[in-house]
Amino acid sequence: MAVIKTLDLEKIYNSTHVPVKALNKVNLEIEKGEFTAIVGPSGSGKTTLLNIVGGLDKPTAGKVFIDDEEINTMKDNKLINFRLRNIGFVFQSYNLIPVLTAKENVSFIMLLQKKSKKEMDRRAEELLREVGMADKFDVRPNKLSGGQQQRVAVARALASRPKFILADEPTANLDTASAFNLLDIMARLNREEHITLIFSTHDQRVIERARRVITLVDGAISKDEQFNQ
Amino acid sequence: MKTFITLAWRNIWRNKRRSFISIASVLFAVLFAISADSLEQGSYELMIDNMVKFSTGYIQVQDVMYDEEPGIDNLLYYDEALQEVLNRFEGSISYIVPRIQSFALAATDTKTRGTLVTGIDPEQENQFNRLSENVIRGAYLTDKDTAVLLAEGLAGILSLDVGDTLVVIGQGFQGATAAGMYPVKGIVKLSVPELNNNTVYMPLATAQWFYAAPDRLSALIIMPENPKHTRRITARLNEALDSEWYSALSWEYLLQDLLKMMQMDRAGSQVIIYILYIVIGFGLFGTILTMMLERIREFAMLISIGMKRYQLAVVCLLESFFMSFIGVIIGMMVTFPFVYYFNKNPIPLKGEMAELLIDYGFEPVMPTSIAPSIFITQAIVVFIIALLIGLYPAYKAFKLNVINHTK
Ligand SMILES: Nc1ncnc2c1ncn2[C@@H]1O[C@H](COP(=O)(O)OP(=O)(O)OP(=O)(O)O)[C@@H](O)[C@H]1O
Ligand SMILES: [Mg+2]
Fold this sequence. Notes:
- The complex is a heterodimer.
- By secondary structure, chain A is α/β, with parallel strands linked by helices.
- In chain A, 35% of the residues lie in helices and 28% in strands.
- Chain A has one domain (2-226): Rossmann fold.
- Chain A has helices spanning 46-53, 76-86, 102-112, 117-130, 146-159, 176-193, 204-207, and strands spanning 2-13, 20-31, 35-39, 61-66, 69-70, 87-90, 164-168, 197-200, 212-217, 220-226.
- Chain A is globular.
- The two termini of chain A are 22 Å apart.
- Helices cover 55% and strands 20% of the residues of chain B.
- Chain B is built from 13 helices and 14 strands.
- In chain B, the strands form three sheets. A six-stranded mixed β-barrel of chain B has the order 3-4-9-6-8-7.
- Magnesium ion binds at residues 46-47, 168-169 of chain A.
């Protein structure tokens, strides 16, 4: 069963004087346990697609199902709650709350889910260890490198036990080593823990880490390739 | 909730300079508002204090009709029954000052003049307003005297001095004719110009004889042991007194015109304080706006990952609550010593203003008031303003479109 399914997704931006068709009849199915990269030139609609699939934005036409639940008709409040329970996010930057330590940042999402203090502590530490941040529990984001911040963000995204994790250009601000490191961590999580991951990038270096690569051109899927490593 | 409080608290200290500016502006608002209000209230309190201590007293017992028609025909009868009632208040009443007062014509060989002839118990009156200290020539009265004390201005108008004789003619109780000739025993300087130009003091018995009103009084001035109990004592007096004949009135009632005038005056100066509120309010709003610009992406991120808008709003409100609260508390702590000092050591006035005050019988000083109500009111007002401004980020949390700010 597909964890994500889109049906004739269309997105037209009307905010500029010429309407922009950012997504054009996108039909997509993503299965549990996939590790998918969305690639394509700048302006091809990667961010738009991830935002709509993540319930951050609404399509102009078409539908989004997550585990067979239609999310594009949900009210704002319900949608926020849905995101909290089901979707993990890693953004390009500004992922973390500056005044909280790494561990508090990871715990924060579990706090919003009303998990017990004990579980929060245990899981936050476990996840930070998993992303190689065992020695940075009590460090605030401004004392972490960009790559370290993104790793904490991945740990935070995992903490809520989401159905899948969306990462829009997670390596865009990282140097090559950090970018590889982050992708390796994501690949391992996918391989070992069967975490469903979807990330967008136009960084050729990291695309090969994915097992499925979907190429967008002008808002439409132009290629959909599977790789077996 | 605990985490939200922690989050809010840490957010405040994230940009120390900005928080410092916000807190300082709240602090300044509190400082200024309390000082201004306190100075103004202080001079009112002094004015009222002067009036109460030297003129009306805290409580007056009068004939029921006297308040409406303060004439010689509405004098109260100071009999044993009344004394007995007052005796029951021993302990709450410190002392009593009797007065009989009406208008009469004063004449010399060549001049006549309308005067206020006031019968006083020299001793009690002196205890009340230290009248004897204002005698500038001659001597103060004793209760056995059949002489008068002339106010300095009136003496000048009538060209009379100590040892001369004053003729007074007027209307006595219930249509009797009042007339008498009295030697001038002393000249007294009264600070209220109007009174200084028309007052004649007589010992109580002499005045009662003059007005043909033995045992009758215009008013009994009652000085409570503790002025703070004025209202209660007044109420209890009214219960105890025969309401057909007597009524007890508190200074708040007796000075109601003055109090109304002060209220109107206050309304005027409140405008200045309002302007201050607005200026400070805009300053705070500016800081909050910059803060919002800096944090809008963080807000968008938080809502994106699943923080409810109301939760974010709560954090925002907590932040402005903390900042306002700190500002208000420090503001009050800083202000109190100042206000207290100038309450104990009133600012002396100089020049015309001072002379004007002296002429009206007031001390030429500007004390501050340390009434807790001033602190509480101003602190609460500033606090509420700061909180209202702090509503803006909370409002933003509800309105924010995450898509525009996640890049
Ligand atoms: N808020 C918006 N208002 C108007 N047009 C928009 C908006 N967001 C995106 N677009 C337009 O929609 C199209 C797709 O944009 P999108 O950001 O999804 O592309 P992208 O593939 O993520 O590009 P990039 O690689 O540069 O991040 C572009 O033409 C873009 O200009
Ligand atoms: Mg993009």
